[in-house]
Design a protein that fits this description.
The complex is a heterodimer of chains A (236) and B (236). By secondary structure, chain A is an alpha/beta fold. Chain A is built from seven helices and eleven strands. The longest helix of chain A is centred in the middle third of the chain and has 12 residues. Chain B has one domain: Glutaconate Coenzyme A-transferase (3-Layer(aba) Sandwich). Helices cover 18% and strands 25% of the residues of chain B. Chain B is built from five helices and 13 strands. In chain B, strand 2 and strand 3 form a beta hairpin. In chain B, helix 3 crosses helix 4. At the A-B interface, helix 4, helix 5 and helix 6 of A face helix 3 and helix 4 of B.
């Protein structure tokens, strides 16, 4: 019988190894799997390459993972946001590497990685410094730049509902990168707000089919990052 | 929801008119710049609005036109800022501010969202600018300063994929330096991508021959605008 449930966030991230590449869902706080990130801080794996659109806020969640010295490299599109000081400080001090990727290219690289496509061409960034050193090619009279697919050892994402097969639906704009990250990682770990019986999610509305999911942890009342940030909370 | 209702909803959320705008400064204020751009958004358009002055455009789309707003973090059919008691921190816009979803809205993941952009399905995008060149090159993501934290977000994808790019910007920097210039000195966001520019002094069309002034703000003549522009302007 297939049942992808795991008892705790701690158990769900226990085999994340030093040097692993980890995709973390979320656009700002929407969709950020904050309890899984905190479990990864407790677990302590180091020298991680983390793929996320941003670099976290305040001193909780992704920002806390970075602040704890566990991230060697960030792959993201927008590393500075309101209340984001951890990454900028480390970056200026030369203590963390940054691969800056246009947001749509980041999404497409993740989708391509998940679909077994090693590289693709796009018009985005042609003529800008972000295309420097990359292969260019003309198609139908227009110039395009080659971008590589992205895969990861682990993806940490958040859903609204999950069943034992790993079928997922999301809450509004918390969906963002989660469905494509689930496709692109060898091991996808989901924190779901509500665990439901198989069949309770209408097959017509399943967003992420269970084949892309490996582990499910139920976190009924996830913390709200912006509330923690405004209260000045730090983790650990 | 009719466009009239949409516009008045956006209107109801207008923050108090900025005193800066209400000064005796010559030319159009920021609301009027947004209003000018809104006149040129056609009925039935799918529109992406950048952060800052471009966000104001939604309030001024003329009555009788229905426009659908796309936000790149996964929502088509974005509505105005919700009341405090209706805020969901997982329903946000690209600026990570709470928004609402209109009846008939759709949520989707990041790769689909950027397929809308990069696949040329979005009709109009309104963006801010640091510099625009005589050829319509846009620089709006980095000054290239060594200590700056580079952050590009979705800007390069938008200019590469959206059919029509409008720019709303002050005509000069706070120091009085021209922002419309022969060649951009800052790193580019895209080459030859801008169609029209709405400044506090004029509405300008990008043509093959250069920048053509199509409308002057009240109390401003062609020579006044030319003196504050770093490339030769054409008369319409």
């Amino acid at each position: 019988m297939i049942d992808k449930r795991i008892a705790s966030c701690r158990d769900a991230v226990a085999d994340i190894f030093d040097g692993a590449t980890v995709m973390i869902g979320g656009f700002g706080e929407a969709g950020s799997p904050i309890e899984l990130i905190h479990a990864l801080i407790d677990h302590g794996a180091r020298n991680l390459t983390v793929i996320n659109n941003n670099t976290g806020s305040g001193h909780v969640g992704l920002a806390a993972l970075i602040e704890n010295g566990q991230v060697g490299k960030m792959i993201c599109s927008f590393p500075r946001t309101a209340n984001s000081t951890v990454f900028p400080d480390l970056y200026r001090a030369g203590k963390i590497e940054l691969e800056l990727v246009p947001q749509g290219t980041l999404a497409e690289r993740i989708r391509a990685g998940g679909a077994g496509i090693p590289a693709f061409y796009t018009a985005t960034s042609v003529g800008t410094p972000l295309a420097d050193g990359k292969k260019h090619e003309m198609f139908d009279g227009q110039e395009f730049v080659q971008e590589r697919g992205l895969t990861a050892d682990f993806a940490l994402i958040k859903s609204l509902n999950a069943d034992r097969y790993g079928n997922l639906i999301y809450n509004k704009t918390a969906r963002n990168f989660a469905p494509i990250m689930a496709m692109a990682a060898k091991c996808t770990v989901v924190q779901t707000q509500v665990f439901v019986e198989a069949g309770d999610i209408d097959p017509e509305v399943v967003v992420t089919p269970g084949i892309f999911v490996n582990r499910i942890v139920t976190v009924e009342n996830p913390a709200q990052e912006s509330k923690l940030v405004s209260a000045g909370v730090t983790y650990p | 929801m009719s466009n009239l209702t949409m516009s008045s909803l956006f209107m109801s959320k207008i923050s108090q008119h900025n005193h800066e705008d209400a000064s005796d400064k010559i030319g159009w204020d920021r609301e009027q710049m947004a209003q000018k751009a809104a006149q040129d958004i056609p009925d039935g358009a799918y529109v992406n609005l950048g952060i800052g002055i471009p966000e104001k455009v939604a309030r001024y789309v003329p009555e009788g036109r229905e426009v659908i707003y796309h936000t790149e973090n996964g929502l088509l059919g974005m509505g105005p800022t919700p009341e405090d008691d209706e805020i969901d921190f997982e329903l946000i816009n690209a600026g990570k501010k709470p928004v609402s979803a209109i009846a008939g809205a759709a949520y989707f993941h990041h790769a689909d969202s950027f397929a809308m952009i990069r696949g040329k399905h979005i009709d109009v995008c309104v963006l801010g600018a640091m510099q625009v060149s005589a050829k319509g090159d846009l620089a709006n993501w980095s000054t290239g300063a060594v200590d700056a934290i580079p952050a590009v977000g979705g800007a390069m994808d938008l200019v590469a994929g959206v059919k029509t790019i409008f720019v709303i910007t002050q005509h000069t920097t706070k120091q009085g330096e021209p922002k419309l210039i022969e060649h951009c000195s800052y790193p580019l966001t895209g080459q030859g991508v801008v169609s029209r520019i709405y400044t506090d002094l004029a509405v300008i069309k990008v043509t093959e021959r250069g920048l053509e002034v199509v409308e002057l703000a009240p109390g401003v003549d062609f020579d006044y605008v030319q003196q504050r522009t770093g490339c030769e302007l054409l008369r319409s």
